Amino acid sequence: MPADTAAPGPEQAYFDALADGRFMLQHCDDCGRSIFYPRALCPHCGGSELSEREASGRGTVHATSVVRRRPEQGPPYNVALIDLEEGPRMMSRVETIAPEVVRIGMAVTAVIDRSGDDPMVVFHPAESSS
Amino acid sequence: MTGLRGAASIVGAGTYGLGEAPGLSELEITAGAVQAALDDAGLRPSDVDGVFCASMTFNMGSLTLCEYLGIAPKFSDSSMIGGSSSLAHLLTAMMAIATGQCDVALVAYGSNQRSMSGRLVSTSRPDPFESPYGPRQPITSYALAASRHMHEYGTTREQLAEVATAARAWAAMNPDAFLREPLSIKDVLNSRPISDPFTVRDCCLVTDGGGAVILTSPERAHDLERPPVPVLGGAMAHWHRAITNMPDLTVTAASDSGPRAYAMAGVSVDDIDLVQVYDAFTINTIMFLEDLGFCAKGEGGAFVEDGAIAPGGRLVVNTNGGGLSCCHPGMYGIFPLIEAVRQLRGDCGERQQSNPEIALAHGNGGLFSSQVTLILGADGTI
Questions:
Q1: Do B292 and B321 sit in the same domain of this protein?
Q2: Is B243 in contact with A91 (Cβ distance < 8 A)?
Q3: Are A63 and A56 in contact, with CB atoms under 8 Å apart?
Q4: Domain check: are B73 and B183 in the same one?
Q5: What is the C-alpha separation between B15 and B224, in angstroms, rounded?
Q6: Measured between alpha carbons, how far is B231 from B218 in angstroms, rounded to an integer?
Q7: Are residues B67 and B109 in the same domain?
Q8: Least CB-CB distance to B135: which of A62, A67, A120?
Q9: Which residue in A has a C-alpha nearest to residue B145's C-alpha?
Q10: 3-state secondary structure of B225
Q11: Residue A38: closest CA among chain B residues belongs to which residue?
């Protein structure tokens, strides 16, 4: 008999929403802070009353690197940490521009990339800065 | 916070298979280091009743090693917190000895990862929130922290490279070091780029090798052959696992473990004669020197300039050549500890410092995550 649990869990719920085209953040109803990655308890206050809200998609580059490869493995690509407008930080990529020109402090906008096996959130330079 | 000060002393240290050890299993390398440490202490496996061992390739490390060595311990621990595990084990071993759980503790680590795979081995489940973006782990995580340090404090590529050239200059005096040929700042900058701002020479080696230390009570230590090295202070801290969740990418939890280790030892940063820190990447040494109080936050880049941490510089750092030039078999934490012990006992040959009394050994694990600081003293400091 299945245990008495709320399913799907927060991690599965996040990826299910992403597959539906929505980038969701958890919001703690106790302390009011946003949470990423999705968890069972709020890491800020321990609260368990968590709701899901669609992310604004607005963010800022906090740190950036260019992963280099041998030529036969493909071109270099960006890996960045993005500070989301709601507060949390996430790892992602800034795409549509050369990886070397991604700058800390750059305004970026979330896009759901469906080109791979699983959808994932990547970022493009925000309209105002492009 | 001084209850454990000097509660145990290191009485033996050994390494084995540093560099390339083809044809040896991980356990054979580890056992070689254990034998070297026991020989150093004048003890036998049957004298050991506490065993501490983590591994990157087999879980239940202490069970595996005890069975292999024929030891039936009264206490053991396989806790895995990444590259600082061995230093954390030393802290636990000290508590176990102080409370009578065991009398003679062995802390051991070994890996054959260079000969087996040629790269850093990870047994962890991929992080579903990071791995899709293809960070080259662990390198990219540290590179992201470096990008932030450069952005906030103006730290330069040349300053990062200074860490690598200093490590290499020390390695030139260590016959056990894997890379000993001269290395210039230009060499570092022109090496193969891996994950900006790092080239391959900003990154630790991938080698084979094992290390082990033996710890016992100060009373028993007094009866053994080698000058005992009392553990004066120790503390651990961690604030995150993945780099995304590091609260401030320019400040490690060493800024917490360090001051608590100093307080337990009853020393200040000015009392430290030599420093052995886990230099997985060039940024590590810079941030640890800041976080451990050798310079102010943000000044680490300038601090290491002009050969300041190379032989003859203003601060003695990583005299074995570090993870950058001596060895790095997956988890390096036991090696800064062993180098500190050897310096305090006067075993270091050409690179030996003149009568050091207090040494700091610092371990780092994960992605700038787990931090363990130990303060060791020369014989007679307790």
A1: yes
A2: yes
A3: no
A4: no
A5: 20
A6: 10
A7: yes
A8: A67
A9: A63
A10: coil
A11: B129
- Please list the pLDDT of chain B residue by residue as tens digits (382 residues): 458 999 999 999 999 999 999 999 999 999 999 999 999 999 999 999 999 999 988 889 999 999 999 999 999 999 999 999 999 999 999 999 999 999 999 999 999 999 987 766 665 778 999 999 999 999 999 999 999 999 999 999 999 999 999 999 999 999 999 999 999 999 999 999 999 999 999 999 999 999 999 999 999 999 998 999 999 999 999 999 999 999 999 999 999 999 999 999 999 999 999 999 999 999 999 999 999 999 999 999 999 999 999 999 999 999 999 999 999 999 999 999 999 999 999 999 999 999 999 999 999 999 999 999 999 999 999 8
CA distances in angstroms from A62 to A79, B104, B142, listed in the order given: 11, 48, 14
Whose CA is closest to A26, among A10, A8, A12, A45?
A: A10
Backbone angles phi, psi at B30, to 5 degrees: -60, -45
Within this chain, do residues B238 and B362 fall inside the same structural domain, yes or no? yes
Q: Which residues of B touch A (CB under 8 A)?
A: 128-130, 132-136, 140, 143-145, 147-148, 151, 192-197, 242-245, 249
B7/chain A closest Cα distance in angstroms: 36
From chain A, which residues contact B within 8 Å (Cβ)?
A: 11, 15, 36-37, 62-68, 77, 79-81, 89-93, 100, 104-105, 116, 118, 120
Instruction: Considering only the beta carbons, identify the residue of B135, B194, B195 that sits closest to A91.
Output: B135
The total of other beta-carbon atoms located within 10 Å of residue B1's CB is: 13
Please check whether residue B299 lies inside any domain of the structure. yes
Torsion over CA: B41, B47, B52, B54 (sign)? positive
Overall domain count for chain B: 2
* Whether residue B192 sits in one domain with residue B91: no
Pull the structure tokens for residue B17.
Answer: 């298979």
Domain encompassing residue B53 = 9-117+208-231
Judge if B157 and B227 occupy the same domain: no
Chain A residue with minimum CA distance to B152: A104
Tell me whether residues A79 and B132 touch, CB distance under 8 A. Answer: no
Q: Say yes or no for a CB contact (<8 Å) between A65 and B244.
A: no
